[in-house]
């Protein structure tokens, strides 16, 4: 190996966005024919680094060497020319084009389409055979599944003769089976001598698929090690910089009466696809029920239905009284009056209006409540003073109610949402991905607040794709797969391995 | 983080845009061989130098206040209502029907009825595009454009075939009865002993327009309905989460918007012409877009912008009267203002952002 | 209704459809690339004025045509500057361009010609004359085929033939060339084009320039072929009818031809209401016909007759993101 030049070598790459240092003096060597993992939390700077490598951003400092030669990558075209292919987290495909048209886009030979397409078809079929990738060249993208769309992205890179393939969080949208298939394909590519960079925040994938791994934290590369010589625990520590608090301080739950009772719930989305396929679930007062599962298995739809902004069929009762699942009393306002609080999965798209001030956001969803009115008008002074109190109690920084939501950090934004929903004293609190994109310090605080609400005897339904979070926070865990609940476990009596199998759709 | 402070965003950006538009307009005047300074002087004397000038300036401003507010309210809900022109035409029809069909004993009651009729007709004309947007996803910009043309056809048909007095060749309604004559600023100011031009068309509607500004401000920033309208305009997904109905807000915002545009008719149809003619709106619906953009969709800004455009309109008419500069100069200025404040706003903002970043670095 | 009336009616349909068709295809290029364009009207108007004015001054309609195209392309580039480079609101930019053209044409016309915002009447070489196709006179007396060829097909200005030729050319460019593939892709998902190493900005500017050229020809046709000279506001909403036709055609070239012919027929019927009365036995008001394209477009937009789905990235400025 020593005599070969590295496929990619980065030396001292730095990149700042305004005051934020996204990448700080990063150096890395990846040998050809290996799979190199880059792991780090959200916002650690992984994607920025790869965007620099693909010509999306220009590094402030540093050098890039491809196969031993210093290479400038000012744009994507240069990256492609240097043999780099990238599979983005969100696919860059034209939805109403065929697979073949997507593959030749930008890499056509000649001004006319037909000869290009004919030639590409031949090459494509060869590539498919060589790497064991199965896609129909004439299928239209919007009609095929995400797994196949991802294979189209890989083929796009291979068609451009990429020797280096970068995959950014490739399994986020895949089922476990599809993810396994992806890793088989990556193994095959490695055998053929391709170099692969796998960006992920999932330790399991790193351990399973990579030869070497680099860890990033807050824009810096903290370590590069051989995968065989490290352990998940060590990587986790390198990622967050200290021992992860895996256990939240909490006493065993003392569940009371059933608050939320779901029977035979079914959700069909706008495209007519059934996303939730008849589930039964109960949440009692004084307990946290966690819903585990790979993203896209119906958890989001479940929250949306309970939050009042998606229609469903089935039977749901709250404190014994039925909840409307469609029609005019199935909206966020009716849910709130019934005593359901909701910390949504995506606080920037749903939980907050980013341009509104913190105090305006504190009224969001409760803006019609009597406490905020004076006569026909809104009592802005009351909302402001309410916000000041909430900001103090939830340690929102900076504690300025007039600042727009977008100028707070992720953790403080989440605290604003949490304060609004928890202090309404709901009977049932829906919580989606409570710590996504939240800094470590705030995670502990948020977890404590949720446990405190439980200890006041409230029912909490928690959805998270982070298994560790579910295990740490929930008293009981239900695993969703493909719109079904695969099984329920007490979190004290289960572990990641068992839940992982359920998440993969293996009956428990 | 916002780089440009709020005061600069609210004051500096529109001012710079206005200056750019002014400079380009001056160049246009130069290019057609006239003196820009003399032209501005003439405009100021003509529009602001006499109560007659003021009377026209405020008359035009009243029209633009209504249409500007109409565009603003829709903008706050994230909707671009480009159909103010058609809604104002229909509003005129409402006013004409109200004034001609009922023998009103006094102008006050007539004004009330005409305002309601104008608002209802304008709102009805906005309701269909709003419904199609909310329920069928039809792009409201395109449908409101189409509805402008359809409104013109409807009005044409009604005036030619239905409301034209027997024997008249003019496609217009009969003159409204004397009883519905609205007091002009001359009449109103006369009460407190202020001399005001008798022949200028500014009338009591101006005061109603100012009242409309205040009410719109209250609605948008002091009621939960306005809060819902603004929330929906900023983020539809968040609005759904909060239990705000996209359908209801789209409908309500467009009904208010169309109603405001329609209400313009009490000024131009009832207050000035005192009959409904074919081309009564004269583009005021479109000027509303410029006024709303210039006024940053805030009722106070809309008020200032409407006065500015009233001044431009009256000043432009004076120019056309005394020089060889055609009235269309105002259309050019209007275009430039729309361009700089609405479409090229980033061109103005980007250098400002750089400037403020430098200042901040210098301080740090 | 006799055969000759039908021929006359269709003949004026073709005349009236021509500017609509050119403007519609102009809009098609722009919107297929993801740039909404409600400024077709203004570009047409500017081109109508500049081609008539320059033709009047030089005596050459061809130089006039070039001037018209130049003016229209200049406005296109302004639209590009606002909506592509500075990522402004494309709809507002279009509105501004319409007003800019409406104002500037009259202002400049008054300055140059002092005829109340008109150009002098164009004569001789300053105007596109009808072309008589070969054998038109010889075939004129052959029943059916003769009048169709001599009256309907022959005897139009060169721009009419050019417009009809543009339809297959547009189709071919869009669906059979590399440029067309990229153009359609950039209107659907600019990120796909960008990551494939093709310039989104370059493609979109190319599209708006093509749009400008076609609008320029449409405008020149109005003032130098359909009419003999420019008058104030002579585009008279045709840009918006073309926009309506584009939606009606669901952004497809051949359907654009059918839609504009249909709308052209409505226009032709407006002046021949006797024909409608003769055919359907009811008197139809001119206003109804005038409003028909708009009403039909609203119905199409409402999705009652097949949904019109615009290019997915239409109206959205492209911002690079990870």
What does this structure look like?
The complex is a heterotrimer of chains A (508), B (364) and C (322). By secondary structure, chain A is α/β, with parallel strands linked by helices. Chain A has 2 domains: 8-240, P-loop containing nucleotide triphosphate hydrolases (Rossmann fold), CATH 3.40.50; 258-354 and 425-503, 3-Layer(aba) Sandwich (Rossmann fold). Chain A has helices at residues 46-53, 76-81, 99-104, 113-131, 146-159, 176-191, 203-209, 232-240, 299-307, 332-337, 347-351, 358-362, 380-393, 410-422, 440-455, 467-473, 496-503; strands spanning 8-17, 20-30, 35-40, 61-66, 69-70, 84-87, 164-168, 195-200, 212-217, 220-226, 258-268, 274-284, 288-292, 313-318, 321-322, 340-343, 373-374, 377-378, 428-432, 459-463, 476-481, 484-490. Chain A has a 6-stranded mixed beta sheet with strand order 6-7-8-3-9-10, sandwiched between helices. Chain A has a 6-stranded mixed beta sheet with strand order 16-19-20-13-21-22, with helices on both faces. The mean pLDDT of chain A is 89. In chain B, helix 2 (36-48) packs across helix 14, helix 3 packs antiparallel against helix 11 (246-263) and helix 8 packs antiparallel against helix 14 (299-322). The radius of gyration of chain B is 21 Å and the shape is globular. Chain B has helices at 6-31, 36-48, 51-76, 84-101, 107-136, 140-162, 185-191, 205-222, 224-234, 236-241, 246-263, 265-273, 284-294, 299-322, 328-343, 345-363. Chain B has a domain at 69-282. Chain C is mostly helical and 322 residues long. Chain C contains 14 helices and no strands. The mean pLDDT of chain C is 91. Chains B and C meet through helix 5, helix 6, helix 13, helix 15 and helix 16 of B and helix 3, helix 4, helix 11 and helix 14 of C.
Concise overview:
The complex is a heterotrimer of chains A (508), B (364) and C (322). In chain B, 76% of the residues lie in helices and 0% in strands.
Q: Overall pLDDT of chain B, averaged?
A: 91
Which structural class is indicated by helix and strand composition of chain B?
Answer: mainly alpha
The major pleated sheet of chain B works out as:
none
In one word, what is the shape of chain A? Answer: globular
Q: What are the segments of chain B in which pLDDT stays under 50 over at least 5 consecutive residues?
A: none
Q: Measured on Cα atoms, how large is the radius of gyration of chain B? A: 21 Å
CATH architectural type of the largest domain in chain A: 3-Layer(aba) Sandwich
Helical content of chain B stands at over 70%
């Amino acid at each position: 190996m020593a005599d070969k030049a590295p496929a990619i070598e980065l030396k001292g790459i730095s990149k700042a966005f305004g005051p934020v240092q996204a990448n700080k003096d990063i150096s890395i060597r990846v040998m050809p024919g290996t799979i190199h993992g880059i792991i780090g939390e959200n916002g650690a700077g992984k994607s920025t680094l790869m965007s620099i490598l693909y010509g999306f951003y220009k590094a402030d400092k540093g050098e890039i060497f491809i196969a031993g030669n210093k290479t400038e990558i000012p744009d994507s075209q240069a990256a492609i020319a240097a043999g780099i292919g990238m599979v983005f987290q969100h696919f860059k495909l034209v939805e109403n084009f065929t697979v073949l048209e997507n593959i030749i886009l930008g890499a056509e030979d000649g001004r006319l389409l037909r000869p290009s397409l004919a030639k590409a078809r031949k090459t494509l079929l060869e590539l498919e055979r060589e790497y064991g990738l199965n896609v129909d060249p004439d299928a239209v993208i919007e009609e095929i599944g995400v797994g196949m769309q991802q294979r189209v992205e890989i083929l796009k890179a291979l068609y451009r003769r990429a020797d280096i393939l970068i995959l950014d969080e490739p399994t986020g949208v895949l089922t476990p089976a599809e993810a396994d298939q992806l890793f088989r394909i990556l193994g095959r590519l490695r055998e053929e001598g391709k170099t692969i960079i796998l960006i992920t925040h999932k330790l399991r994938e790193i351990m399973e698929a990579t030869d070497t791994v680099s860890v990033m934290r807050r824009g810096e590369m903290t370590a590069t090690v051989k995968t065989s010589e490290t352990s998940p625990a060590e990587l986790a520590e390198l990622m967050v910089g200290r021992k992860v608090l895996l256990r939240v301080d909490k006493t065993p739950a003392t569940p009371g009466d059933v608050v939320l009772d779901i029977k035979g719930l079914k959700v069909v989305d706008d495209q007519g696809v059934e996303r939730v396929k008849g589930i039964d679930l109960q949440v009692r007062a004084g307990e946290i029920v966690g819903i585990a599962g790979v993203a896209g298995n119906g958890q989001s739809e479940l929250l949306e239905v309970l939050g009042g902004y998606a229609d469903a069929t089935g039977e749901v009762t709250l404190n014994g009284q039925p909840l409307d699942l469609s029609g005019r009393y199935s909206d966020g306002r009716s849910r709130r009056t019934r005593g359901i609080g909701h910390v949504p999965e995506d606080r920037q798209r749903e939980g907050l209006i980013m341009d509104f001030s913190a105090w305006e956001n504190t009224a969001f969803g409760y803006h019609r409540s009597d406490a905020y009115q004076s006569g026909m008008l809104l009592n802005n002074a009351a909302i402001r003073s309410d916000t000041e109190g909430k900001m103090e109690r939830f340690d929102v920084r900076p504690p300025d109610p007039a600042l727009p939501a977008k100028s707070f950090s992720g953790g403080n934004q989440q605290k604003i949402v949490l304060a609004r929903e928890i202090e309404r004293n709901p009977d049932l609190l829906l919580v989606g991905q409570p710590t996504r994109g939240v800094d470590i310090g705030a995670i502990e605080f948020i977890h404590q607040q949720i446990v405190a609400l439980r200890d006041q005897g409230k029912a909490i339904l928690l959805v998270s794709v982070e298994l560790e979070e579910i295990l740490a926070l929930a008293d009981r865990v239900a695993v969703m797969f493909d719109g079904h609940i695969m099984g329920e476990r007490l979190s004290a009596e289960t572990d990641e391995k068992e839940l992982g199998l359920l998440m993969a759709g293996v009956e428990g | 983080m916002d780089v440009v402070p709020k005061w600069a965003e609210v004051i500096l950006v529109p001012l710079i845009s206005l200056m750019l538009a002014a400079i380009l307009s001056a160049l246009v005047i130069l290019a057609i061989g006239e003196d820009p300074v003399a032209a501005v002087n003439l405009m100021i004397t003509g529009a602001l130098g006499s109560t007659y000038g003021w009377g026209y300036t405020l008359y035009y401003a009243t029209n633009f206040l209504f249409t500007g507010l109409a565009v603003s309210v829709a903008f706050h809900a994230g909707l671009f209502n480009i159909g103010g022109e058609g809604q104002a035409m229909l509003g005129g029809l409402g006013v004409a029907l109200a004034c001609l069909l009922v023998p009103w004993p006094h102008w006050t009651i007539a004004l009330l009825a005409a305002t309601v009729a104008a608002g209802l007709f304008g709102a009805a004309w906005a309701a269909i595009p709003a419904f199609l947007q909310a329920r069928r996803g039809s792009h409201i910009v395109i449908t409101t454009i189409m509805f402008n043309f359809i409104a013109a056809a409807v009005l044409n048909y009604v005036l030619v075939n239905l409301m034209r007095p027997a024997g008249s060749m003019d496609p217009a309604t009969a003159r409204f009865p004397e009883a519905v004559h609205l007091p002009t600023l001359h009449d109103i100011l006369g009460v407190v002993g202020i001399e005001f031009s008798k022949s200028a068309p500014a009338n009591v509607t101006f005061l109603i327009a100012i009242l409309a500004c205040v009410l719109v401000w209250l609605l948008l920033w002091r009621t939960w309905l306005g809060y819902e309208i603004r929330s929906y305009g900023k983020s539809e997904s968040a609005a759904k989460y909060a239990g705000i109905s996209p359908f209801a807000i789209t409908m309500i915002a467009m009904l208010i918007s169309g109603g405001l545009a329609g209400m313009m008719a009490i000024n131009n149809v009832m207050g000035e012409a005192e009959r409904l003619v074919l081309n009564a709106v004269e583009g005021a619906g479109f000027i509303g877009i410029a006024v709303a953009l210039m006024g940053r969709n805030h009722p106070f800004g809309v008020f200032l912008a409407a006065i500015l455009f009233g001044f431009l309109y009256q000043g432009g008419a004076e120019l056309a009267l005394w020089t060889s500069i055609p009235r269309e100069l105002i259309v050019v200025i209007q275009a430039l203002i729309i361009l700089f404040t609405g479409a090229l706003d980033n061109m103005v903002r980007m250098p400002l952002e750089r400037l403020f970043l430098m200042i901040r670095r210098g301080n740090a | 209704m006799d055969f000759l009336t039908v021929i006359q009616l269709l003949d004026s349909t073709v005349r009236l459809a021509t500017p609509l068709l050119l403007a519609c295809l102009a809009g098609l290029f722009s919107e297929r690339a993801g740039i909404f364009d409600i400024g077709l009207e203004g570009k047409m108007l500017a081109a109508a004025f500049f081609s008539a004015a320059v033709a009047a001054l030089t005596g050459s309609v061809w130089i006039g045509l070039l001037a018209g195209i130049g003016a229209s392309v200049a406005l296109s580039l302004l639209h590009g500057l606002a909506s592509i480079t500075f990522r402004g609101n494309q709809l507002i930019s279009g509105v501004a361009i319409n007003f800019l053209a409406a104002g500037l044409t009259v202002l400049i016309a008054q300055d140059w010609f002092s005829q109340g915002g008109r150009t002098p009447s164009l004569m001789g070489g300053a105007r596109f004359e009808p072309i008589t196709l070969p054998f038109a006179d010889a075939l004129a007396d052959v029943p059916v085929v003769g009048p169709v060829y001599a009256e309907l097909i022959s005897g139009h200005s060169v721009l009419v033939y050019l417009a009809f030729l543009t339809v297959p050319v547009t189709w071919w460019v869009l669906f059979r060339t590399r440029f067309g593939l990229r153009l359609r892709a950039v209107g659907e998902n600019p990120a796909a084009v960008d990551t494939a190493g093709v310039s989104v900005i370059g493609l979109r500017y190319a599209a708006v320039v093509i749009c400008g050229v076609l609008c320029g020809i449409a405008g020149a046709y109005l003032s130098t072929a359909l009419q003999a000279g420019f008058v104030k506001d002579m585009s008279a909403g045709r840009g918006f009818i073309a926009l309506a036709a584009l939606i009606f055609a669901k952004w497809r070239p051949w359907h654009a031809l059918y839609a504009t012919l249909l709308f052209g027929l409505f226009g032709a019927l407006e002046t021949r209401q006797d024909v409608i009365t003769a055919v359907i036995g009811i008197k139809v008001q001119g206003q109804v016909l005038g409003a028909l394209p708009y009403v039909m477009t609203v119905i199409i937009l409402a999705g009652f007759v097949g949904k019109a789905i615009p290019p997915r990235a239409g109206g959205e400025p492209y911002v690079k993101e990870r």
